[in-house]
Design a protein that fits this description.
A hairpin with a 6-residue loop joins strand 5 and strand 6. The protein is of the alpha+beta class. The structure holds zinc ion.
């Protein structure tokens, strides 16, 4: 998260969800392999710097290394680092509803 914090400084990053134990992850509907359970992912917002869509766009266009960057429900941004044993994928996704599922790339929806 250090690189993200630096990108939006001096505006504070609010981490809405960091590490989740497997039980909590299941309760909030997280997928089994969620990187939250590995301590590799964080959901965050930075209201002073812009909407979640704008924040995700800024990170995507930066040189920051990440495994996945996901605009989630237009409410927060999920970012994860790759585990030690494989390179970062730099995968960018959006999700607006569980029914629709993950979409490739960042989508702007009001
Ligand atoms: Zn997340």
């Amino acid at each position: 998260m250090g690189a993200v914090q630096a990108l939006f400084a001096p505006h504070p990053i609010d981490i809405t969800s960091g590490y989740r134990c497997p039980e909590l992850n299941a309760r909030v509907g997280g997928v089994d392999t969620s990187q939250h359970t590995l301590g590799l992912a964080a959901d965050w917002v930075c209201p002073e710097a812009g909407t979640p869509w704008r924040l995700a766009q800024t990170v995507a266009q930066s040189g920051i290394e990440f495994d996945q960057l996901i605009l989630e429900f237009n409410r927060w941004v999920h970012i994860s680092a790759a585990p030690q044993d494989r390179p970062a994928r730099r995968e960018i996704l959006s999700i607006f509803s569980s029914a629709e599922g993950y979409l490739s790339g960042l989508h702007k929806r009001e």
